[in-house]
User: Fold Acetohydroxy-acid isomeroreductase from Kribbella steppae.
Amino acid sequence: MTTFTSSVFRTETMTVPGGTETILRGGRDLFPLLPQSLHGVRRIGVLGWGPQGRAQAQNLRDSLAGTDVTVSVGLRPGSASADDARKLGFTEDDGTLGDWLAVAAASDLVILLIADAALAAEHERIFAVLKPGATIGLSHGFLLGHLKASGGDFPAGHPVIAVCPKGMGDSVRRLYEQGATVNGAGINASIAVHADPDGHATDRALAWSVGLGSPYTFATTLENEYKSDIVGERAILLGAVHGLVEALYRHFRLDGADPVTAYERSTESITGPIARTISAAGLPAVRAALTDDDRDLFDRAYTAAYGPAREIVAEIYDEVADGTELRSVILAEDRLASRPMSRIGGSPMWSYGAEVHARRGTTPAAIDPLTAGLFVATMVAQVDEFADRGHPWSEIVNESIIEAVDSLLPYMHARDVAYMVDNCSRTARLGTRRWGPRFQASYEQIALPSLDTPADQTLIASFLSNPTHDALTEAAKLRPSVDISVS
Assistant:
């Protein structure tokens, strides 16, 4: 679904390659419309206190302040997150904090933000206690994928909607807070309406998205969302980036660079000037910023990396689509119950991050043409795979480009890539561990050894004329109005 209608909000049309898509421009001036658009929802129950649960519960509570809609947080008995929720104003005394099943039973909109594997295991218990006609809310389509693979389904008679922010929970909250003083600050979101028995599901989804502070909301399907989201985590958002910087650091070291320079040319170049250039001016601007000699190296790197990266993205997509990747996440839960997940930042390069960060004021990193060519090729490979699989352009540019350069890469720049991998969702961490080494091996064994091959000018011309540039130009008009503030 790339179009939607609303009985409350005024939507707009965005021109994209091959047609148009419907969007809703957000803003705090729309907050007074939220109770009306929620259509009978007087209690929202947010189950879970991971990064998304923590952020979404606070944003919705703040956006609905002064209305008759209450936001409650539901946690499992003995949850270690209860104290943090209390510190942020959710308490048992006023009924805004409670047992997860009790909160689910009392809510008109139940937003399921517990971990993916836990939701796969526990969804039947949650469904069993829902009020008749209560709306089921998701921020990820993982559960749909699991239900399809296991022969299950959502309960009849319940609206099923999704609002999926295109950024981490920390970004969702931080940009919302920035939006208190800068209108338009926030994280874009997609909506999906999977079941609409009472005819109000779209308005409820739009209200949820506006309440989160989304600068603009676009439409997709729940199936398209989980495919693009899970593939993106394993590719350009996390897995490919981690594999790429590990491969490049080793490449530069073998080529004679000292450790700090190797870190700057790999990690720092991607998370800093490359990300900022794409965010401000688009993908071709990275190539245009280079000298003629550096542009030739960019073209050779792009040529060497595009095909191998596209192969891996297609493989990931197939394994997500047939349920293999989802089953691997669920299987991991049993292992992780007795053996904690190891941290990923053990290679020598990560010990130089602090030194590189300290140099930023005096010797800021530049766009490295080799790094840029490999990174942009991988990003475009994901874009092209999603386009060929039929995803709408709003989803493609948000999942593959905007989420990377406006949410994840700024956090990687402030911390480092390995830190972010170790502090994202369990589903994303597992996927990065599985696919990051595949990307690393592909760069080391296929792309980098091919750098002496002349650039494929047909492939470069295809990059320069790629329709994603037009789609990104339109979407960028509605990107967050400020850069995220990462302390």
In short: The first strand starts at residue 12 and ends at 16. The mean pLDDT is 93. The two ends are 38 Å apart (CA to CA).
